[in-house]
Design goal:
single chain; alpha/beta; Rossmann fold; five-stranded parallel sheet; two-stranded antiparallel sheet; 10 helices; 41% helix; 11% strand; binds thiamine diphosphate; binds magnesium ion
Length: 332
């Protein structure tokens, strides 16, 4: 008899709704972008949704998340209201960062999501610092610091890992290996293509994970969290995943074949979750249709909210550039 999954019906439905929202939200964004409803860059996470969904289910709400510019799924996974994200994309004052951040800088500190960073690898020392702050304050939070396969070739990544291991900082480095950095394959950037091994020279344990399978992601993060919370220092996970769309909206994808793309489409992480829901009869077709309709309506409402919101006054460009020093965690 097949082994029963340790995950409940509720967990499966939660994963499904959250991942479907990530997907539908971004599919809509790509239409809106082509219609020039907003500008700037747009990098879609489509195909990689299981990584965020599994990370969210295996962590506490007060554990921090930080990532690169492919950053719409992280706040959605944490439950950020998408109307504030849509307004951010539209450059409106009601956006998460008052319209000044845009697609690449989705921050929602109330949900412990710290962006959204455009400099490749820039978030790795920052994430290490977030985790260090928690350690300094004496709580047992961990930080999930995500990055792409391209970011691991940056010096800052290696410096951060060295410090985290030396000081036993509670940070989980999540390398989302989607096989390409823009159009450059992992193989073209280094002899070391097993990215989970990159922490080993700093004594950081690392593992490869099937990043297209939300259960596998959850289990791996759960194990890494246990390690970090118990004071053993950092952990590194290589999520093997794939982005179904181009690097950004202007990418003809000439560096990979149609065959390769189709092969990964068969591994769609949302379809896998849906198949379990159907097989285990966790929801009827009517209930699934209701989830679909709910998501569609929420997205339409978010667009309306964004369109009806005001643009910032021109002078706002000078506001919130510098912050007053405020170090609440420094003890006398
Ligand atoms: C320091 C720096 N160098 C170059 C770039 C240009 N750039 C933007 S995205 C990118 C590729 C990064 O790929 P990866 O880390 O694999 O992340 P993915 O886009 O696949 O999620 C590059 C080189 C940049 N933003 N920052
Ligand atoms: Mg990549």
């Amino acid at each position: 008899m097949a082994k029963k999954s340790k995950f409940s019906k509720e967990q499966y439905l939660k994963w499904y709704e959250s991942m479907l929202m990530m997907r539908k939200f971004e599919e809509k964004l790509s239409q809106l972008y082509i219609q020039r409803k907003f500008g700037g860059f747009l990098h879609l996470y489509i195909g990689q949704e299981a990584v965020v969904a599994g990370a969210v289910s295996a962590t506490r709400d007060d554990d921090k998340m930080i990532t690169a510019y492919r950053c719409h799924a992280h706040p959605i996974g944490r439950g950020t209201d998408i109307k504030y994200m849509m307004a951010e994309l539209f450059g409106k004052t009601t956006g998460l960062s008052k319209g000044k951040g845009g697609s690449m800088h989705m921050f929602d500190v109330s949900k412990h999501v710290y962006g959204g960073h455009g400099i490749v690898g820039g978030q790795v020392p920052l994430g290490t610092g977030l985790a260090y702050a928690d350690m300094y304050k004496g709580n047992d939070c961990v930080t999930l610091c995500s990055m792409g396969d391209g970011a691991v070739r940056q010096g800052a990544f290696h410096e951060a890992l060295n410090l985290a291991a030396t000081w036993k900082i509670p940070v989980i480095y999540i390398i989302e290996n989607n096989k390409y950095a823009m159009g450059t394959s992992v193989e073209r950037t280094s002899n070391v293509t097993d990215l989970y091994k990159l922490g080993l020279s700093y004594d950081i344990p690392g593992e490869p994970v099937d990043g297209m399978d939300v259960e596998a992601v959850h289990n791996a993060i759960e194990k890494a969290v246990k390690h970090c919370r118990s004071g053993k220092g950092p952990y590194l996970l290589e999520m093997e995943t794939y982005r179904f769309k181009g690097h950004s909206m202007s990418d003809p994808r000439k560096y990979r074949t149609k065959d390769e793309e189709e092969q990964y489409q068969e591994d769609d992480p949302i379809l896998k979750v849906l198949n379990v829901i159907k097989k285990e009869k966790y929801a009827t077709q009517k209930q699934l249709d209701a989830i679909d309709a709910r998501i569609k309506k929420e997205i339409e409402d978010a667009i309306q909210f964004a369109e009806e919101s005001p643009f910032p006054e021109p002078g706002a460009i000078y506001e919130e550039i510098y912050a007053e020093p405020n170090y609440p965690f420094i003890k006398d």
